[in-house]
Amino acid sequence: MEGKGDAMQVPGKRAGVIFDVEGVRAVVTGAASGLGFAMAEVLALNGARVNLLDSNGDLLEAAVKELADEGATVSGELCDVSDPDAVDRVFGAIAEREGGLDAVFANAGISRGAGVIVEEGQIEHADRSAYRQVIDVNLDGVVWTVQAAARVMRPQRHGRIVVTASTAGLSTEAFCGYGYIAAKGGVVNLVRQAALDLARDNVLVNGIAPGPFHTRIGGPSGGDPDVEEYWASTVPLGRMADPSELQGLVLLLAAPRASTFLTGAIIPVDGGTLVGPPISAFSRPAGGFVR
Ligand SMILES: NC(=O)c1ccc[n+]([C@@H]2O[C@H](COP(=O)([O-])OP(=O)(O)OC[C@H]3O[C@@H](n4cnc5c(N)ncnc54)[C@H](O)[C@@H]3O)[C@@H](O)[C@H]2O)c1
User: Which of 134, 155, 255, 278 could form a disulfide bond with 179, CB atoms 3.0-4.6 angstroms apart?
Assistant: First the structure.
């Protein structure tokens, strides 16, 4: 599937060629909801063969049906990414059925435990069970997924691995618990190490660092409105995002003719959050600082 910079040889409009994912054999973990569903959707509706993995059977069934009803080539596998044996088993079966894998999105993740903004989230009180659950899924689950992907991709000498990190892996975040911050910080450097390791075999590994998106991570009916208002207030663009706003980047990272020299990058999709607080967060003295 991999073409090295040959898109410009094709006459006519180039974008459809560069971002073409037709026939790409893809796996997305945590694909039944939120960002993972948006990833699966844009790949599947553009002709990729997408395997949706999730630990929530009901959500998974609905997600697969929704895409299949639109004529996409999709299948769903129940898989808890925190269980390395299950990950190996599911990836082995998919790779055998598909004859290889071209793009794997290690996206599944959870949020548990209070943020440091409240007393119970402060380091002395941080809940150990919540910490363990988040590390199991958001850090270890990504390691097992990247490992399973690499076992298929290295021998075939091509592939794309994309990890969903977070702005919380690149900066502090008062509303996030210690498990979440530690896991996301961990996967940022895991991406870089795996990119280095797999570059010699032409497997590209990158991370996405989303800012606040409307998904089910804050609960099935969306987040607490006060918390969502807080999140929006941290974003220079002044709002939370819709998962569809990630889809252009997904095509860029998965398409065999796009981003062929891009590896080891962590790409923020955060409305400017990492640039700094919105200007409205600063109180300006009368007359400003102009001298
Ligand atoms: N929503 C945001 O604002 C935001 C910001 C930064 C990063 N992220 C990251 O994006 C990723 C997706 O989260 P989301 O916001 O779409 O949340 P979501 O809850 O809408 O979707 C997460 C999906 O992962 C599945 N999942 C949970 N644990 C699993 C496990 N052990 N094995 C397999 N599947 C599992 C869930 O069933 C769900 O379908 C996560 O890694 C999250 O940390 C989200």
Answer: 134
Asked whether residue 167 is assigned to any structural domain, the reply reads yes
Q: Say how many domains are in the chain.
A: 1
Give the largest Cα separation in the chain, rounded: 69
pLDDT tens, position by position, 22-31: 999 999 999 9
273 lines ligand 1 (CB under 6 A): no
Collect all residues with Cβ–Cβ distance below 8 Å to 220 and sequence separation of at least 6: none
Tell whether the model's pLDDT for residue 285 goes beyond 80: no
Does residue 14 form part of some domain?
A: no
Q: Determine contact, residues 49/72, Cβ cutoff 8 Å.
A: no
pLDDT digits (tens, 9 = 90+) for 69-110: 999 999 999 999 999 999 999 999 999 999 999 999 999 999
Asked if 247 and 35 count as a contact pair (C-beta separation under 8 A), the reply is no
DSSP per-residue codes, 162-198: EEE--GGGTS--TTS-HHHHHHHHHHHHHHHHHHHHH
CB 177 within 8 A of CB 129: no
In a domain, 254, yes or no: yes
| Pocket probe mutation, ligand 1, options 110, 184, 242, max atoms within 8 Å of Cβ | 110
Q: State which residues form the domain around 247.
A: 21-270
CA of 64 to the centre of ligand 1 (A): 17
Please give the model's pTM, rounded to 2 decimal places. Answer: 0.95
Is 8 inside any structural domain?
Answer: no
